[in-house]
Automatic annotation (TrEMBL):
Keywords: Methyltransferase, Transferase. SUPFAM superfamilies: S-adenosyl-L-methionine-dependent methyltransferases (SSF53335). One of its GO terms (molecular function) is methyltransferase activity. One of its GO terms (biological process) is methylation. This is Class I SAM-dependent methyltransferase. InterPro entries: Methyltranfer_dom, SAM-dependent_MTases_sf. The lineage of its organism: Archaea, Methanobacteriati, Thermoplasmatota, Thermoplasmata, Thermoplasmatales. It comes from the Archaea. Pfam families: Methyltransf_31. Residues 31-157 form the Methyltransferase domain.
Amino acid sequence: MEWNNHNYARTTEMREKYIPFANVDKFLELKPDDNLLDVGPGDGFYALTLVKEVPRGTVTAMDLNEYSVNEIKKGKEAGNIKNLVVSQMDICTVTDFSHYSKVFFSNVFHDLKCRDKILDRMISTFRDKTRIIFIEFKKESAIGPPANIKISQQELKDTMKRHGFSFVKEEELTEHYMQMYTI
C-alpha cells in the first residue's frame, strides 16, 4: 500500500466510529512509567494521545514510512511533547525489545511478513510482565483488508501460544477485537 497518499482523514473517521478510544485506553492499562512501543502508528493518533498517560515513561512511534514519521514529528513539535520518540525504522529489523513494557499493534500485525521473526525476538528479549496488545479486524468484518489477510481471534491466540506467549485478555468491538498477551 502506498502510504504517502493514504487518506488519514478516512482512517480517523473509521477509528472514531469503530474503535472507541475509551475502550482502547482502558484495555491498555497504562501506568505512568510505562514505555510503550506503538508499531506502525500511521497518523500518530495513539502515540500522540497516549504520551499523556505515561508522564514518567515514553511512547515510541515506530514506522517505516517517512510521511507518517514526519506527520508525527509535526504533532510532537506542535504539542511540545517531550516523552515521545519518533523512529523511522522497520519493526522487522528490531532485535531487542527489552526497553518496552508494552508493545502495541493497531491494525498493523496482519500486514507484517515477519510476524514469526519478531515474536521470537520479543519472547527472547522481553522483561517479566511486558505486554503485547493487538487491535485487529475481525475475520468476518466487512471493513479492512480482504479476509485472507485478516487474522481471526483464534488464529492470533494460536500464533501467540506457539511462540510462548500467555493470553491475558480480550475485548470485542463492532468490527475489531483487542487481545493482550504476556510472557
